[in-house]
User: Which sequence fits this backbone?
C-alpha cells in the first residue's frame, strides 16, 4: 500500500513537471503574424512572375538567351536580397502597431510591382520610355530599402530591448547599409547616369544599371567590414 502511494505521488509529480514545461513553452511561443505569411506569398509571386516572363520569351539566338538570363538573375537577386533582409528583421520585430502594418503593406506593394517595372524597361521600344520607367524602378527600390532601414532602426531601439545588447552594433550597421542602398537607387535617378555608360566589349552599359548592380554586393561588403571590425 505504501509502495502504491509512493508510486502515485511520483507519477503525479512527474505529470505536474511535464504540464509546467508545456505551459512554459506555450507562453514563450509567438504565433507568426498573418502579415508575414502574406509577405512570403507576395515575395513568392513576384519571383514567379519573373520566371514566367522568362519562360514566355523565345530567344532568337544564344546571346539573346544569355542576356535574358542575366536580366532575370538581377531581378531575382534583388528580390531575394530584400526578402532575406525583411525576414531577418521581422523575425525579431513584432508587428503590433498600425504604422508598422501600413508600412508592411506599402513594402509589399513595392515588391509586387518590381517585376512589372523591370520588364517594362527591357521591353521598351524607345530609349526615352526606358529612361522614364527606370526612374520609377529606382524609386521603387529606394522605397523598399528605406522601409527596410526603418524596420531595422526599430530593432535597435534600446528601450524596446528587441535584440541583445551585443548585437546592437551589428543591426545598426545593417540599417546603415540599407540606407546606403536606398541612397544609391535615388542618386541613380540623376539623368547623367542614364546618358553615360561604360563600354564592355560590344556593349555599352549605362551607369544607372551599374549602380543598381553594385547594391547586390553591399551585403558582402558589410560582412567583410564586420569581420575587419572584429579583428
Assistant:
Amino acid at each position: 500500500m505504501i509502495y502504491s502511494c509512493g508510486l502515485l505521488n511520483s507519477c503525479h509529480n512527474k505529470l505536474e513537471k511535464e504540464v509546467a514545461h508545456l505551459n512554459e513553452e506555450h507562453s514563450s511561443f509567438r504565433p507568426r503574424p498573418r502579415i508575414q505569411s502574406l509577405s512570403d506569398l507576395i515575395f513568392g509571386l513576384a519571383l514567379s512572375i519573373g520566371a514566367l516572363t522568362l519562360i514566355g520569351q523565345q530567344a532568337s539566338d544564344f546571346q539573346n538567351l544569355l542576356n535574358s538570363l542575366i536580366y532575370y538573375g538581377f531581378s531575382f537577386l534583388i528580390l531575394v536580397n530584400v526578402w532575406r533582409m525583411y525576414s531577418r528583421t521581422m523575425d525579431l520585430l513584432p508587428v503590433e502597431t498600425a504604422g508598422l502594418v501600413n508600412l508592411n503593406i506599402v513594402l509589399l506593394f513595392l515588391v509586387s510591382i518590381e517585376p512589372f517595372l523591370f520588364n517594362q524597361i527591357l521591353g521598351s521600344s524607345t530609349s526615352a520610355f526606358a529612361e522614364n520607367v527606370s526612374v520609377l524602378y529606382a524609386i521603387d527600390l529606394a522605397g523598399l530599402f528605406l522601409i527596410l532601414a526603418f524596420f531595422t532602426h526599430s530593432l535597435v531601439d534600446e528601450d524596446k530591448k528587441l535584440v541583445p545588447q551585443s548585437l546592437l552594433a551589428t543591426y545598426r550597421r545593417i540599417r546603415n547599409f540599407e540606407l546606403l542602398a536606398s541612397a544609391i537607387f535615388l542618386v541613380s535617378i540623376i539623368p547623367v547616369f542614364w546618358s553615360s555608360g561604360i563600354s564592355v566589349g560590344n556593349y555599352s552599359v549605362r551607369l544607372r544599371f551599374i549602380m543598381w548592380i553594385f547594391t547586390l554586393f553591399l551585403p558582402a561588403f558589410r560582412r567583410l567590414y564586420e569581420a575587419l571590425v572584429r579583428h
User: Anything to note?
Assistant: The radius of gyration is 25 Å. Residues 62-90 form the longest helix (29 residues). Residues 33-230 form one domain.
